[in-house]
Write a structure and sequence with these properties.
The protein is built from twelve helices and five strands. It is an alpha/beta fold and about 260 residues long.
Amino acid sequence: MNNKEVSDSIEQLTRTLRLPATRRHYIDFAKDASSANIGYQEYLLRLLQVEYDARNENAVKNRIRRAQFPFKKYLEDLEVDCLPVDAQKKLRMLTSLDFIETGQNVILAGNAGTGKSHMAIGLGIKACREGYKVWYTSVPSLINLLKETRAQQTLRAFENRFLKYDLIIADELGYISFDKEGSELLFSHLSLRAGQKSTIITTNLSFERWDEIFQDPVLTAAMVDRLTHKSYIINMNGNSYRIKETQEWLKKENLA
């Protein structure tokens, strides 16, 4: 075979076998191998490594995309010194992601603007990077989805998917109260995961105020008991990030 035939065959095979990184790099790597007197095995290893790295990177991107985060927030961007004291103490433990392996919940509870959603999404993105299957939802959106799937008689299929996620982030519990149907659906689905799979919940209400949103003391007590059992509870009461950022922005504007 001449060089053109060889190139065409490699092009076709790499497309058939879905090896795009190999197709992009094999010529340059061959030139490097020739000039540096690199053997066939090392040349092959380099091609396999670049293909593996590309697939791993694409897999991470796909997991992050499927997680449906509303925006990207990274743990590296957290101003740790500005976090509430309890969050500062427990952040290293949370970033190990051991709680996912043990199926434990994390509850970030405190006033608005203290970094709850940032921490939750940051942990979710880190989990995606490390191979875990993650899904983000706000609690009001989750309840609406549960009602829709029940009405469409697809609730069982949704339950099966819901249970397969390694980590679910249920954000913004406490901003909107629920009717009886919504409360019961939320309780039953979060209970399905209790002790098996991890859920991160962010809330602006202390536990004794949860009956304001569930409007049923018995259900509220059962929900708190089920979700907090062997959970990591982080006190997120502190100064608001957003107020601090607004003050800094106003200061810059006045100086401009």
